TrEMBL record:
Gene3D superfamilies: EAL domain (3.20.20.450), Jelly Rolls (2.60.120.10)
CDD domains for the chain: CAP_ED, EAL
MF terms (GO), sorted A to Z: cyclic-guanylate-specific phosphodiesterase activity
Residues annotated as domain EAL: 148-401
Name this protein carries in UniProt: Diguanylate phosphodiesterase
Domain called Cyclic nucleotide-binding: residue spans: 1-103
Organism expressing this protein natively: Prochlorothrix hollandica PCC 9006 = CALU 1027
Cross-referenced Pfam families: cNMP_binding, EAL
Length: 408
C-alpha cells in the first residue's frame, strides 16, 4: 500500500444548494459523504430530473474519475454537507496495478452505467438520440475482456495439451565465442491464436495462479533439457530461469527447485535465477527469498538492468552473481556516446562489486566487440543465436564448445 496519498485528507464543506459538479464537467474527483446529503440530477429541456439522493457513507462521482470521461449528471448539496475527496491518482495507480481481467470488466460495467444514463435521457426526451457512441465505445472493451478470459482458460489447457514449448538462447563468453549457458524462454503455440509471445501470456499467467504450474513446467522441462545436453555433448552449461514476481510470493518454489535439481542430478550452482529489478521493488518477500536462494546455492541474476528504476542501491543491498545489461543500452552503443559511457560504468561497477555482466540483445558483431573491449565478458543476442529448440541448442553447443577451464 502506498501511503503518499493519505498524508493530507482532502475535504470540502458545502452550503445547502451549492453545486458540487455539473454535467459535462471533467471528473477530477470522486466524493464520499461524511455529513449531510447530496442530490444527483440531470436536466433535460430545462426540466430537472432527480436521479438519486445520497446520505453519509455514499460515494459518488466515481464513474468519470475511473473512465476519464465527463460527468454524466450534476450533483449539489441539499443540506450543510461535508465531503471527503478521492483524487484521480488514488484511483489511477490502483487500476493500473489491478488484474487486467478485473480492469477490463470494470470498464465494461462502467460502460453499462453510462449507457443506462443515456437510456434515461432517451426515455425522457423525444429529441435526444445519442446512444450509439456509448455502445460502440463499449464494444471493444467487452471484446477485450472476453478475449482475456478466453485466453486464460486456453492457457490452462495449454499446459495439459503440450502447447507450451521451451526454447534456449545461448549465452556466450565473448572473447572465446564459446557457450557458457542458456536462458530458457517460454513459447505458447496456440492452435487458435498461433504463436503467442510471452510478453502477452506471462503477465496473464502471473495475475492468476496459473504462473505456478507454468513455472513448474518450465523448471522440469529445462532440467530435462540440461540432462540431455550433458548426455549428448558431455558439456555442463548453466541454465538461466526467469522468475516472475508472483512465483516469489507463493511459497514452494525453492522447495520445488531443490527437489527437481536433485531428481535430475543438476548441481544448484548451474541453475541461475533471473529476476527483474521491478520484482525487487514490488515484492516485499523478495529480500528473504533471495537470501534463501543464496543459502541454497542458486546464483541470482538481476535482469534488464538499465531499464525502469535502475537504482544503484539494489546492487549494493542485494548480492547478485550476475547483472544483465539491458538490450536498449546495447543497441545504442554505436550511435550514442553516452550509452557507451553508461555501459562502461555499469560493467566496471559490477566487477567492483564481484558480479559478472551479461550483455543482452547483441545483434551486430561490432556491438559484441565494443562490449568485450569495455571488459564485458558475456553476451547473448540474435547475432550469436536466436532462442533455439533443444535439438538446435545441442548442435550450437557442440559447435561452440566451452573452454576446458570453464567460465560461468
Ligand atoms: P527477457 O528475460 O529479457 O528475455 C530476453 C528477451 O529478448 C527474449 O524475448 C529474447 O527472445 C529476446 N532477445 C534475445 N536476443 C535478442 C536480440 O538480439 N534482439 C532483440 N530485439 N531481442 C532479443 P522473449 O522470448 O519474447 O521473452 C520476453 C520476456 O518474457 C522475457 O524477457 C521474460 O521477461 C519473459 N519470459 C519469457 N519466458 C519466461 C518464463 O518462462 N518465465 C517468466 N517468468 N518470464 C518469461
Ligand atoms: Ca531474462
Ligand atoms: Ca532481459
Amino acid at each position: 500500500m502506498d501511503y503518499r496519498y493519505y498524508d493530507r485528507l482532502r475535504q470540502r464543506r458545502l452550503k445547502p444548494g451549492e453545486c458540487i459538479f455539473t454535467e459535462g464537467d471533467r471528473g477530477d474527483y470522486a466524493y464520499i459523504i461524511d455529513q449531510g446529503s447530496v442530490e444527483i440530477f440531470t436536466t433535460l429541456e430545462d426540466q430537472l430530473y432527480v436521479l438519486s439522493v445520497l446520505e453519509p457513507g455514499a460515494i459518488f462521482g466515481e464513474l468519470a474519475l475511473v473512465d476519464g470521461r465527463t460527468r454524466s449528471a450534476s450533483a449539489r448539496a441539499l443540506t450543510d454537507t461535508l465531503l471527503t475527496l478521492v483524487t484521480r491518482e488514488q484511483v489511477d495507480e490502483r487500476i493500473q496495478s489491478a488484474d487486467p481481467i478485473l480492469r477490463m470488466l470494470l470498464f465494461v460495467v462502467l460502460g453499462y452505467l453510462r449507457m443506462e444514463s443515456t437510456h434515461f435521457r432517451r426515455r425522457n426526451s423525444p429529441n435526444f438520440s445519442i446512444g450509439l457512441r456509448e455502445r460502440t465505445d463499449l464494444l471493444p472493451r467487452i471484446s477485450q475482456a472476453v478475449d482475456l478470459i478466453r485466453m486464460e482458460s486456453e492457457l490452462q489447457s495449454a499446459i495439459r495439451d503440450g502447447e507450451l514449448k521451451l526454447v534456449y538462447q545461448p549465452i556466450l563468453h565473448l572473447a572465446s565465442n564459446t557457450v557458457v549457458g542458456f536462458e530458457a524462454l517460454t513459447r505458447w503455440y496456440s492452435p487458435s491464436r498461433g504463436l503467442v509471445p510471452p510478453s502477452i501470456f506471462m503477465p496473464l499467467a502471473e495475475c492468476t495462479s496459473l504462473i505456478i504450474p507454468v513455472g513448474e513446467w518450465v523448471v522440469k522441462t529445462a532440467f530435462e533439457a540440461m540432462r540431455q545436453m550433458e548426455q549428448v555433448t558431455g558439456n555442463t552449461p548453466f541454465i538461466s530461469l526467469n522468475i516472475a514476481n508472483r512465483q516469489i510470493e507463493e511459497p514452494g518454489l525453492t522447495d520445488y527447485l531443490v527437489n527437481q535439481a536433485q531428481c535430475y542430478g543438476i548441481p544448484r550452482q548451474r541453475i541461475k535465477l533471473e529476476i527483474l529489478e521491478r520484482t525487487l521493488m514490488d515484492s516485499q518477500l523478495a529480500p528473504r527469498w533471495m537470501e534463501e536462494c543464496r543459502q541454497l546455492g542458486f546464483p541470482l541474476t538481476l535482469d534488464d538492468f538499465g531499464t525502469g528504476y535502475s537504482s544503484l542501491g539494489y546492487l549494493n543491498q542485494y548480492q547478485f552473481d550476475t547483472l544483465k545489461l539491458d538490450k536498449s543500452f546495447v543497441q545504442e552503443l554505436e550511435d550514442n556516446a553516452s550509452s557507451r559511457s553508461i555501459c562502461k560504468a555499469i560493467i566496471d561497477l559490477s566487477h567492483a562489486l564481484g558480479m559478472t555482466v551479461v550483455a543482452e540483445g547483441i545483434e551486430q558483431a561490432t556491438q559484441g566487440e565494443l562490449l568485450a573491449d569495455m571488459g564485458c565478458s558475456y553476451g547473448q543476442g540474435y547475432f550469436y543465436a536466436k532462442p533455439l529448440s533443444l535439438g538446435q541448442a545441442i548442435e550450437f553447443l557442440q559447435e561452440h564448445q566451452p573452454s576446458p577451464h570453464g567460465v560461468s
